[in-house]
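Exercise 7b. Backbone tokens:
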């Protein structure tokens, strides 16, 4: 089973690329936790866009993780918003399906 190790020094662009390769779904990373406004800079690290007061840390992402749980965990750890979309990035994935299933939808 595919998995990605998420750490604060990982660049957002690298994370999005690895996410697509591992799970087939698209990862959208935003500057704000509300997922409104601009996307985060792909050359920035997770630690550099982390919200003030957010603890950061390490997270192992696996394909059988539910979309909603993954998005919530990133918000808790880094204070930023992420959304999982289908493979061609045309619509957001349902929160109740797995990350891998989102890539097949």
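Sequence design result:
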């Amino acid at each position: 089973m595919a998995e990605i190790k998420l750490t604060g020094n990982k660049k957002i662009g690298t994370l999005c690329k690895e996410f697509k390769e591992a799970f087939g779904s698209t990862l959208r990373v935003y500057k704000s936790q509300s997922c409104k406004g601009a996307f985060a800079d792909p050359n920035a690290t997770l630690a550099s866009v982390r919200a003030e007061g957010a603890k950061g840390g390490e997270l192992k992402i696996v394909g059988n993780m539910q979309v909603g749980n993954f998005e919530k965990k990133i918000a808790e750890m880094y204070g930023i918003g992420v959304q999982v979309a289908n493979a061609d990035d045309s619509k957001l994935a349902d929160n109740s399906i797995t990350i891998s299933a989102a890539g097949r939808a």
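Instructor comment: The radius of gyration is 12 Å. The chain has a mean pLDDT of 93.
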